[in-house]
C-alpha cells in the first residue's frame, strides 16, 4: 500500500466516523426510543454499502486502492460493531432481553443479509 493510499484510508475512516456521529445524532433527535436504532441503521446501511463496494471491486469496476479507501476507510469508520456490542450488553444488564436479542442477533442477521444483497448488486452492475 502506498503512503498516499494509507493517508486516504485514514482520512476516509475519519470521515466515516463523522458521518456515523451525525447520522446517529439525527436519528436520536427525531426518534426517542431506548432501542439503539441509530446504531442499527448505521450498521445495516454500512453493510449494504460495503457489499456494493466489494462487488464492484470483484467485478473490477473499482480498483483495489478505492476498495480499501471506501470499504476499509469510509465504511469501516462509519459502521460500529463495538458500539452495537456495548448497547446489547447494556440492554441485557437492564433485563431488556427482547431488545437485546433484536440488537445483538437481529442486527447481525440483517447486516449479513444486506451485505449479500449489496454484493449481488455490485457484481450485477
Provide a concise account of the structure shown:
With 125 residues, the chain is mainly alpha-helical. The chain has helices at residues 3-30, 37-58, 64-78, 81-93, 97-124.
Comma- or semicolon-separated keywords:
125 residues; mainly alpha; 5 helices; globular
Describe the fold and architecture.
The chain contains five helices and no strands. With 125 residues, it is an all-alpha fold. It has one domain (3-124). Helix 1 packs antiparallel against helix 2. 38% of the residues are buried.
Average pLDDT over all residues? 96
Q: Which H/E pattern describes the elements?
A: HHHHH
β-sheet strand percentage: under 5%
> Helical segment tally?
5
Number of discrete domains: 1
Pfam family, one: CRCB
Main location: membrane
Keywords: Cell membrane, Ion channel, Ion transport, Membrane, Metal-binding, Sodium, Transmembrane, Transmembrane helix, Transport
Family: Belongs to the fluoride channel Fluc/FEX (TC 1.A.43) family.
Amino acid at each position: 500500500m502506498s503512503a498516499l493510499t494509507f493517508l486516504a484510508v485514514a482520512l476516509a475512516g475519519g470521515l466515516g466516523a463523522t458521518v456515523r456521529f451525525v447520522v446517529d445524532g439525527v436519528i436520536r433527535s427525531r426518534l426517542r426510543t431506548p432501542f439503539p436504532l441509530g446504531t442499527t441503521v448505521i450498521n445495516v446501511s454500512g453493510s449494504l454499502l460495503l457489499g456494493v463496494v466489494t462487488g464492484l471491486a470483484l467485478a473490477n469496476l473499482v480498483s483495489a486502492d478505492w476498495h480499501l479507501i471506501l470499504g476499509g476507510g469510509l465504511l469501516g469508520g462509519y459502521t460500529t460493531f463495538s458500539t452495537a456490542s456495548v448497547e446489547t450488553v447494556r440492554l441485557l444488564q437492564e433485563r431488556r432481553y427482547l431488545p437485546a436479542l433484536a440488537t445483538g442477533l437481529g442486527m447481525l442477521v440483517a447486516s449479513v443479509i444486506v451485505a449479500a444483497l449489496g454484493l449481488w448488486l455490485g457484481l450485477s452492475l
